[in-house]
Amino acid sequence: MKKKDLIWIATIILIAFLLIYKPTHLAFINATKSHPYIMGFIKVSILATLGELLAIRLKVGDYKKPYGLTYRFIVWGLFGMAFTLVFEVFAQGVLASMNKGLLPNSSYPFVFAFFTSFIMNTIFAPTFMALHRITDTYIDLGQGKLSLILKTNLKDVVNKIDWYGYISFVVLKTIPFFWVPAHTITFLLPSEYRVLMASFLSIALGAILSIAKR
User: Fold this and answer.
1) Residue 166 to residue 126: CA distance in whole angstroms
2) Contact at 8 Å (CB) between 207 and 54?
């Protein structure tokens, strides 16, 4: 284990401690309720970036800084803001559909959680993950420099992406076998923890994808 591994692990432990320690736990809950979009940005940008660094570590054996780390951080934060809205839209939509008899109604929280996860991951997840590939490829082709990113052609970006791998692995394997079960657990949690859980899951998925590539 390298020094950087210890730093990465210590960062995760610190985040976990802040979530468990009562004063910071209450501050986290209050901030999430008062400023959901800002907290969505912070939670996902930090944890998903840590997940990207872990993925690089598993793939190449070291924590190499990827092209445009700052831009990737910002993109993840924007996705976090989107998650804040999307999670609520699908959760409330499933509840309304169950109450109207459009979906099987049940008093068991698992039924609500499963339907929400399944519908969200079959409708929203493929679009989100495709968009994420596009933004990452823009950053890669632009070598992390804004001037070059802005000059990068969309056609070059689309041609660079392995769409077969995206469909065959990301969509057809990670969605049914990882995201649907994982987000079923997510929607069993109180709403203020759901985006945070999704952020932690991005770390796990980064590890899975890196191992698969190896």
Assistant:
1) 9
2) yes
The residue type found at 84 is T
Helices (H) and strands (E) in the chain, counts: 11, 0
In this model, does residue 58 exceed pLDDT 90? no
Longest CA–CA span in the chain (Å) reads 56
pTM, entire model: 0.89
- For residue 185, tell me if it sits in a domain: yes
Overall number of domains in the chain: 1
Find the helix packing angle between 3-20 and 36-60, rounded to 10°.
150
Q: What is the pLDDT of residues 33-57, one digit of tens each?
A: 999 999 999 999 999 899 888 888 8
C-alpha pair distances (Å), 156 with each of 72, 140, 146: 19, 11, 16
Q: Is residue 79 part of a domain?
A: yes
18 assigned to some structural domain: no
